[in-house]
Amino acid sequence: MTTVEGTCDPAFSGVRDVFQRNFAEGREVGAAVAVYAGGRKVVDLWGGVADHRTGRGWTADTPCFGFSCTKALTATAALLLAERGAYDVDGPVTAWWPEFGAEGKEGTTAAHLLSHQAGLPAFARPVSAEEAADAPARAADLAAQKPEWAPGEGHGYHALTYGWLAGEIVRRLSPGNRTVGEFVRDEFTGDLDLWIGAPDEVIERSAKLTARRPGKNATEAPASGGTTPPVPSEDGEVLSRLASAYTDPDSRLNRALNNPHPGKGGYNNPVVLRAGWPSAGMLTTARALAAFYVDLVAGRVLKPETLREAVKPRVSGPDRTMLVDSAFGLGYMRPATTFAIPAAGRKSAFGHTGAGGSIGMGDPEADLTVAYLPNLMGDQLSGDLRAFRLVGAAYAALES
Fold this sequence. Notes:
It comes from Actinomadura vinacea. This is Serine hydrolase domain-containing protein. 33% of the residues lie in helices and 15% in strands. By secondary structure, the protein is α+β, with helices and mostly antiparallel strands. The chain has a single domain (4-72, 187-399), classed as Beta-lactamase, CATH 3.40.710.10. The strands form 3 sheets. Strands 1, 2, 3, 4, 10, 11 and 12 form a 7-stranded antiparallel beta sheet that branches. The two termini are 29 Å apart.
């Protein structure tokens, strides 16, 4: 039986129970979960194997790849610059990125970039992991590209392109033209074990992603399936529709998720981890990711009024990429099929999920933050409920 280590306030023992049960039922290889309530750390647990190839155990400071949980950090960086007056969120992108007006995109606003309305959910040509490390070039590709729908006339998850769209706000408008990773670390995560673009020392001790459960010929994480958020649904019709799109190489879903291609080793590829894709490039501990949301909810990163405006849903309903309902504020997910939250948090929770089942979220009304990072890639098409159950246990503890 896997030993779960760390600390847990007795009032939140339900979170520990769910976490241990996930291991006992063979749903985990290695994972960590952290919960803060009222700004106080009440759960900090980890367990299992960080590297299935060597048997290296998961420790207190093991970072794990956060996939699209990264997008919340990128959005926060962009919003901080807006708060400082660097640009107008509802103003035209061409005011600070003139080239973006090509191919009928002159009416695109920064809000469209931040809320998946830009009509650029996928690159028009194949992009390698090495090419993806060149953020200015990838942003230029998107600026020249024709949108798949008129910007602002619908939303569809920009699984990977989001990083080079929202990230360009940071690269062009931050003092020193910093990368998202540099800006985030300089401005609000410098003391946390959180990197968007990690040094080799951090990559070496990070958890290695795998696509197989224990005892079932574990392999490296798949090269595909990059950043799709978990869809915890048991609706057969929904899952059938997703499965069909996922296996169709020409579908918008497939094109959005799998280009750029991460290359050999999938998302364990050091080329990807060093580059720090601003859509899906974060290595972090669950403790650090939850602590980021603590600071965000407490008004230490963005002003409270900035965050209130940012979490208001800008779009909701059928997602042109994901084919299920999604909801987004300015970069943050809001409760929907793609961001499943227990009833107690559906009015005020925000955050972002990531492939394989990871989540980072905050709830200002409940004063609760939760982060969960597994290295076993969950099967979204069968409904990965690990994070949902952990978040549910955290809310249940508040109500007891």
